[in-house]
Write a structure and sequence with these properties.
Bound molecules: flavin-adenine dinucleotide, iron/sulfur cluster
Radius of gyration: 24 Å
Distance between the termini: 58 Å
Helix content: 40-55%
Largest sheet: 5 strands, parallel
């Protein structure tokens, strides 16, 4: 009686539901590096290296804990290249009587798993992924019957459920949310903590060589790879963040500075998303910093909200909205993704900075993703599906359950407001307020029209004007629409002509590319 337990690349946790309760003496864990997963979008080289290196280290940790692990490498000559093909081969090798697996983080893979029972003629048990704060079914029950889904109300439920930053049933400090204090712009003269990074060991070096050989045509660079690839390493990175950056995480959460990819952000999402860290342990560690008086409430509340609030909320939306969510395009945006998203070669300095660091590191922080690359795509009317595929490919932490709702829902308003109450659209003034990018840009952020004007200024008004049918009734946009209506007709025309000139140039570049 052997049970086959496939463990996927983002299931690197000992607390995985498929392992819990299984008997190591009668089970075989199957881990698979397959070309279909590394290549169904052209993932950033660093992301592939991170996942494969973390998988190989996790396989060793499982073996040390007494599990039998059958590990299929990407360059194994017999490798069929897909999960289904590898599970089928493992069934022949091990002759299991059943397959037990934890549900994946993507509809596409879930559908493949659901076909295994019929294809392989074995019982297949697909267990819920219990590594999240919300128990299975919680989000659907919470969303049931609500006219509108809003993260803030979901988040309060999560605070009550976890007891994080709560005292006698009320939020510590008297408020649920301290975001109003978390919008300071940063100065380059501030002391910015430096992440130390984790040098690659021999096993990781071998993976880096493999990825360099097989994925040279993927975006990104491997040089300088310094991510942790074990649970111990991830715990050390977490401890370092808590000590050095958390205290100012809140103040500068929305700030951007040229040449400073991380600022006070944690870079913990890759570890959380592959399972090397658990969301509640990270939140409890942050709460302990507040309780010890080492980090202020606005920082700790803001950090915890991202994890028990946004992270859980977007996951809830992903599964609740169904497999067709990826096809939504409420604003009927059709423009192809400009080539410069893959090269970083653009004279808009904000875009060059955000894309450049993304291609180098596989990382940009939230405001860069939302208010630089996301905002530009929204204003320029780029097809949200193409935008989604870019985000899925280029970020270390991108797994569809978390990437898609953030991109298509929050950033591109492709779901028409299911996730967010208004589009995150901004002109150059926002970028100028929250960053130092505009100082070194050939465009002038104060000019609204003409060849020297910041393109975002005209694009912003053009976005509102051309989407009025869909957005005109949104109460949160009442003020900008009033401002638009009050503008002189020639000013409106000049703005729309400037936007059209920019978009024509963009279309020309796309055609010539
Ligand atoms: C267009 C777009 C695409 C995104 N794609 C992804 C993605 O593929 N994977 C991903 O994990 N996050 C994604 N995010 C959310 C967020 O940008 C990243 O989680 C964050 O930048 C990760 O960096 P960090 O660990 O330094 O985060 P920090 O700023 O230090 O935040 C702490 C933690 O909070 C969580 N978090 C913060 N914001 C969000 C959010 N909106 N949704 C989910 N979790 C959040 C992350 O786990 C993160 O590690 C996206 C956001 C946008 C706007
Ligand atoms: S001027 Fe406009 S394009 Fe240039 S950095 Fe500022 S916001 Fe970006």
């Amino acid at each position: 009686m052997t049970t086959l337990i496939p463990v996927l690349g983002d299931q690197l946790s000992f607390s995985l539901s498929a392992l819990e309760g299984a008997d190591p003496t009668t089970s075989v864990v199957l881990m698979m590096e397959v070309a279909e997963e590394t290549g169904y979008v052209r993932h950033h080289q660093r992301k592939i290296a991170f996942i494969l290196a973390a998988m190989r280290h996790h396989a060793d940790a499982l073996r040390a804990a007494g599990w039998t692990v059958d590990y299929i490498r990407l360059d194994d000559p017999e490798n069929s290249g897909s999960f289904t093909g590898e599970v089928a081969r493992a069934v022949v090798r091990h002759g299991p009587t059943a397959i037990r697996v934890t549900e994946p983080g993507e509809w596409r893979v879930r559908q493949a798993m659901e076909s295994w029972e019929a294809q392989l003629g074995l019982p297949v048990e697909i267990l819920p992924d219990t590594r999240f704060v919300t128990p299975p079914g919680f989000f659907a029950a919470w969303a049931e019957g609500r006219k509108q889904l809003r993260m803030e109300f979901f988040y309060r439920e999560m605070r009550r459920m976890t007891g994080l930053l709560m005292a006698d049933g009320a939020p510590i400090g008297g408020q649920w949310n301290y975001d109003a204090q978390n919008r300071k712009a940063a100065e380059a003269s501030l002391f910015i903590p430096r992440r130390q990074g984790t040098p690659p060991d021999a096993m990781t070096q071998a993976v880096l060589a493999l990825v360099a050989a097989r994925c040279a045509d993927h975006p990104g660079v491997l040089a300088g790879f310094d991510l942790a690839v074990t649970r111990e390493g991830a715990l050390a990175e977490m401890a370092q963040f808590m000590r050095s950056a958390l205290p100012q995480f809140g103040d500068y959460q929305d700030a951007m500075l040229a040449g400073e990819p991380l600022l006070w952000h944690s870079l913990l999402s890759p570890y959380l998303n592959v399972g090397l860290l658990a969301p509640l342990e990270v939140c409890r560690a942050a709460e302990a910093e507040y309780q010890a008086g080492r980090a202020p409430l606005n920082a700790v509340e803001g950090f915890i909200r991202q994890i028990i609030g946004w992270r859980e909320y977007v996951r809830g939306i992903y599964w609740w909205a169904g497999p067709d969510y990826a096809q939504r395009n409420a604003l009927a945006a059709k423009r192809p993704l400009p080539d410069f998203y893959w090269t970083g070669t653009t004279d808009m300095r904000c875009m060059a900075e955000a894309i450049g660091q993304t291609l180098n590191l596989g990382y940009a922080h939230h405001i860069q993703r939302l208010m630089i690359t996301g905002n530009y795509a929204l204003l320029a009317g780029i097809d949200p599906h193409e935008v989604h595929l870019w985000y899925l490919a280029v970020y270390l932490d991108a797994f569809e359950w978390v990437e898609l709702p953030n991109t298509l829902g929050m950033s591109q308003f492709g779901d028409g407001g299911l996730l967010a109450s208004k589009p995150y659209a901004a002109s150059g003034a926002y970028v100028d307020r929250m960053s130092d990018y505009c100082g070194g840009c050939p465009y002038d952020v104060r000019q609204k029209t003409g060849p020297k004007a910041c393109p975002l200024n005209a694009l912003y008004w053009d976005f509102l004007a051309r989407n009025r049918d869909q957005l005109g009734g949104n109460v949160r946009l009442a003020m900008p629409y009033r401002n638009w209506d009050r503008m002189a007709e020639d000013q409106k025309q000049a703005l729309r002509a400037s936007a059209a000139a920019h978009l024509d140039r963009l279309d020309g570049e796309a055609c010539s590319g």
